[in-house]
Amino acid sequence: MAQLAPSILAADFRNLSQQIRLVEMAGADLIHCDIMDGHFVPNLTFGPLIINAARRATELPLDVHLMITNPDNYLEDFVNAGANSIIVHQEAVIHLNRTVQRIKELGVKAGVAINPSTPVDVLKDIAEYIDQVLIMSVNPGFGGQNFIPNSIRKIKETVQLRKSLNVNFLIEVDGGIDNRTAKPILEAGCDIFISGSAIFKADNITAAATELLNIIKRR
């Protein structure tokens, strides 16, 4: 069954606990946390302190996406803050096997993200060691961008890679997911839908999350 992971990048941080509660009421499965450092991507967001605040606000799993250079230097900080899974970028990590192994040693799930211009084939030699693959369907750095159409092909290619290698990682998609794009993304094979602006910028956050859930649960 597909899952919804609202991204708090688009939330109102003045009322973070309340914002998380509103998506919990809709039935959200995870909370997605986008960490940006202003180097790997052209934006600066938040760090372990906000992860810790989110941890205190919810019992839902925290899915932490590190869009940063040198993520190895901060893995323990994010795990200690309350992360349940940590996703690093293939493009940002030199020794990816070592990083994935370290994440798992810290007792959380390990994922690898790829940017829109990065081919799925780069995942072939890491696929058997990871729990999640995150397909970026916008260029990372800012919320509210439009979905890149050829991401559908990449999702399908990732499904085929998983099948050909007989592995079990979940496929996440992040960027431009709303009521219009969710259905083709679902049909392509996405397992976890990450959505920020479509939920947290809506007039009624709970209703917006519920609408999206109604679409993605129709597997």
CATH topology, by name, is TIM Barrel
SS strand fraction: 15-25%
Order of strands in the sheet with the most strands? 1-8-7-6-5-4-3-2
Cα-atom radius of gyration: 16 Å
Can you give the helix content as a percent range? 25-40%
What number of domains? 1
Structural class: alpha/beta
Profile the largest sheet.
8 strands, parallel
- The stretches of 5 or more residues where confidence is low (pLDDT under 50) are none
SSE pattern, N- to C-terminal: EHEHEHEHEEHEHEHH
Number of helices, where a helix is a run of at least 4 consecutive DSSP H or I residues: 8
Principal-axis shape: globular
End-to-end gap? 7 Å
The name of the CATH architecture is Alpha-Beta Barrel
What is the overall pLDDT average? 95
Notes on the structure:
This protein has one domain (3-216): Aldolase class I (TIM Barrel, Alpha-Beta Barrel). Helices cover 35% and strands 19% of the residues. The chain contains eight helices and eight strands; from the N terminus they run βαβαβαβαββαβαβαα. β4, α4 and β5 form a beta-alpha-beta unit. The protein starts with a strand and ends with a helix.
